[in-house]
Each structure stands twice: as C-alpha cells, then as structure tokens.
Design a protein that fits this description.
Blueprint: E1 3-6, H1 12-17, E2 21-24, H2 25-31, H3 35-44, H4 53-64, E3 69-75, H5 81-90, E4 94-99, H6 106-120, H7 124-149, H8 156-164, H9 173-188, E5 197-202, H10 211-216, E6 220-225, H11 226-231, H12 242-247, H13 255-269, E7 273-279, H14 288-294, E8 299-304, H15 312-332
Parallel strand pairs: 1-2, 1-3, 3-4, 5-6, 5-7, 7-8
Helix pairs in contact: 2-4, 3-4, 7-8, 7-9
Length: 333
C-alpha cells in the first residue's frame, strides 16, 4: 500500500479513500529513541536553531523514514509548514497543501475539503464511506476519555496517547481499533484513582510526555487533553457530513472558538487548573495572553523546546502550581 505523511490532522477520510496508508510524522518523530537525530539533521541541513523543534523533527523524520509524499497544513496550524514543504520539495518529496480557512465558515471549509478531494480523485460518497468506518474507532477514543474524567480509571498519559493516535490510527485502523478495545477492557477492570487535583492540558501535544506521570506524583491527574481530544473528533456523531465534522474541529480556527469548548470542559470535568504547554519559537505562545484572561481557573504556562523530558526548573514550577491548587481546594472546602 502506498504511504503518505501528514504534518497534523487533515481530512484523513479522503486519503484513506484514495488508498493511502496515512502516517502522522509527528508520531514517528517523537516516539523514536533517535528523535534528537532528526532535529540535528535538520539543523545540519540549514534549519535555524531558533526554529521550532517539531518542524525540524518533521523534516528529519520524513527523510529518515523515506516518506515520498506528504500533506502539509499551511494554514490553521504551524506558520512554518509552508517553508517546510518548500524544502521537502527540493529534496524530491511530493507535497500537497491543505488549509483550514482563516474565515471559519461552513462554506469555506466545504470548499477546502472539496479541493482536497479533487487533488486525490475522491468523491464525497467515498469519503463519507470511510468516515462511517472510522466511527467505531472514535467511539472507543471517547470511551477512554470518559474513563479518564468520569470514572477516574484511565491515566492522563493514556488519555493523551489513545486520542492523539487517532490522527493517523497508527497507520492501520483495524489494528488500532483492536488496541483501543483491549485497552478499554483493561482500564474498566481497575479501581478508580483518587487524586485530589483535576487538571486540564491545553496546547499542542507535548515533547515532554513524562509530564503526565510527574503530576500524578503530586496527588494530581490530567483529565482533559484539549488538542488530543480534538484529534479524535469527540462530536463526530453530531456532524451531518465530513464538512460539518471539520468545521466543528476547534484547533485550527480562532482562539475564541477553541475557548468556548474549553470552558464547557472545565465545567463538565470540574477542573482545578490548566497547564498550557507552548513550544519554543511558536507563534501560538502569544495566545497565552488571551487564555489567561478568558479562563476563570489558574493557568500555568510551561515551554518545551528540544528535550523530551521535563527539566528541573519546569518540575519546580509544576510542583509549586500543584501545591497552590491543593491549598485552594483545602481553603474552599
């Protein structure tokens, strides 16, 4: 089966209908033990040190795994993706462009997806058939999310992992479905966890995935992963069509639209605080100003760069933040 890489979530139903095995290059990059070599390769090839580690990692991983075709999201995600595609084209990689429209209207979203279908010779009926097949996977991801925040049985990292994997279904939707079902059965047998502090996580999936285990050592647990949850399309059953599904996807559109959903989840999940992860040199870090202004619960902003483990300074800041949230809960009670 022919392979195609993606730089972030795209209308994957179109690619599956076109006969591709879809690979989220972010997952290839960050899950590899040699992930740092991908960053170093990009810097050797001329990427500035003052550029995002994710972009450099995407470049290095794409070349390391010999990916010959890639879809880059040039609007609605990373502002550097357009330049990344230019460099990959010069390396012989066939590139496709997909954009989430700056004007968040169903008409513009529909037009963008229709162009995407045309690029790959796919009809709406074919894409909708794939969307139907994927519904069971998305139901399973939603179940794991509920087992996290409602039943208190799944860990924050499991919540992250099994939702973020739905960007590409680990390259095999059938095997991914089996893994999700097996994991649900395992989680359901557990006794509920009893951490006192309930956290939300906002921002792109972290380079430092040890964050989840670290906070659990301080009587806290992440019960909401904002962007990872959006990758799993939690409201897919309410969408009338593929166009509505991607119109309702919050991450690529304006911040106020994202925050509407975040505020709902703060209330539903009874969150005590938010960890907002930003990536060094990313334009989205500036959104932190609005996030802290608009949300009515404490927000701690942490920044990642190249390391895939928390540094000592960030650990101290997390510990102090969690102590503060615990004191606030004690005082309120």
């Amino acid at each position: 089966m022919k392979q195609i890489g993606i730089t972030t979530t795209v209308p994957v139903e179109v690619l599956l209908a076109a006969g591709y095995k879809v690979i989220d290059i972010n997952n290839l990059f960050i899950s590899a033990e040699s992930y740092f070599q991908d960053i170093e390769r990009a810097e050797r090839d001329g990427f500035p040190k003052s550029s995002c580690a994710w972009i450099k990692g995407l470049y290095g991983a794409c070349l390391r795994y010999g990916i010959c075709e890639i879809v880059g999201v040039s609007e609605g995600d990373c502002s550097n993706t357009k330049a990344l595609l230019e460099v990959l084209r010069s390396r012989g990689v066939r590139t496709y462009d997909f954009s989430y429209p700056s004007r968040h209207s169903l008409k513009d979203v529909t037009a963008g997806i229709l162009r995407f279908m045309e690029d790959f010779g796919v009809t709406q009926q074919q894409a909708e058939a794939e969307r139907e097949v994927l519904k069971e996977l998305r139901r399973c991801a939603r179940t794991i999310d509920e087992l996290t925040y409602s039943h208190n049985k799944a860990s924050g990292f499991e919540n992250h992992l099994y939702q973020v994997s739905l960007s590409d279904f680990n390259g095999d939707s059938g095997q991914c479905l089996k893994e999700l079902k097996d994991k649900i059965l395992e989680i359901e047998k557990r006794a509920p966890q009893k951490q006192a502090v309930r956290l939300g996580y906002m921002g792109v999936p972290p380079m430092t995935c040890d964050l989840y285990d670290y906070v659990e050592g301080f009587n806290a647990r992440v019960v909401f992963n904002e962007v990872q949850r959006e990758f799993a399309f939690p409201r897919f059953e309410a969408a009338e069509s593929i166009y509505h599904q991607y119109y309702d996807y919050t991450y690529p559109y304006h911040l106020n639209f994202r925050l509407q959903e975040v505020k709902k989840q703060i209330e539903l999940r009874k969150l005590d605080g938010i960890i907002h992860y930003t990536q060094a040199f990313c334009h989205r870090a500036i959104e932190d100003i609005v996030i802290k202004k608009e949300l009515d619960i404490p927000v701690l902003t942490i920044e990642g760069d190249k390391a895939n483990r928390l540094d000592s300074r960030t650990k101290l800041r997390l510990e102090a933040f969690l102590d503060m949230l615990w004191d606030m809960k004690e005082g309120f009670n």
